[in-house]
Amino acid sequence: MCIMSREWNASVTVAAVIERGGRFLLVEEETRDGLRLNQPAGHLEAGESLIRAVVRETLEETAHTFEPRALLGCYMSRGLSSRDQGDTTYIRFAFTGDLGTLDEGRQLDTGIIRTLWMTAEELRACPERHRTPLLMACVDDYLAGKRFALNVLYTHPTSVATTTGDAS
């Protein structure tokens, strides 16, 4: 029997892949490595479904509402945690859907400098600016037409806080 000597850390995240007219909605954010690009994305919080998390994160990072229409895919990568600098495995659930209204008075999340729209070619030209290697993987899957019905996700009611009213 092999026993691993180090603790395994995993972090569940969500991301919104939103395209309009051949351009993708991104956020430019301050990180420990300087300004980086990412999809609107963030961590799943306790008592929250994956769908609620991506709606919340999109609103917090872009000031836009978001209506998920499909699961784009599930992705995994390793890196240093932005929270504690430890080695972490990130498990990302990426969604695509419709961008809704802008709340012009809403302040963007701490660390988010601005939103911007970029083509896939513009993104491919600046991999050093990507916050995660998953950014381009999500865009490529979107462009390849990968989509999964949201009902492939199941959240048992005991996992979701009763205040959200969402068991999806």
Task: Give a description of the structure.
By secondary structure, the chain is α+β, with helices and mostly antiparallel strands. It has one domain (10-153): Nucleoside Triphosphate Pyrophosphohydrolase, CATH 3.90.79. It contains three helices and eight strands. The chain has helices at 50-62, 120-124, 134-143, and strands at 10-17, 19-20, 23-31, 34-38, 41-43, 64-80, 87-102, 112-118. Strands 5-1-7-6 form a four-stranded mixed beta sheet, with helices on both faces. Strand 6 and strand 7 form a beta hairpin. The longest helix has 13 residues, at 50-62. The radius of gyration is 16 Å and the shape is globular. The model has no long low-confidence stretch (mean pLDDT 91). This is Phosphatase NudJ. Its cofactor is Mg(2+). Monomer.
Proportion of residues in extended strands: 35-45%
Dominant shape: globular
Our measurement of the CA-to-CA distance between the termini, rounded to an integer number of angstroms, reads 39 Å
Low-confidence stretches: none
The third-level CATH topology is Nucleoside Triphosphate Pyrophosphohydrolase
Q: What is the radius of gyration computed over CA atoms, rounded to a whole number of angstroms?
A: 16 Å
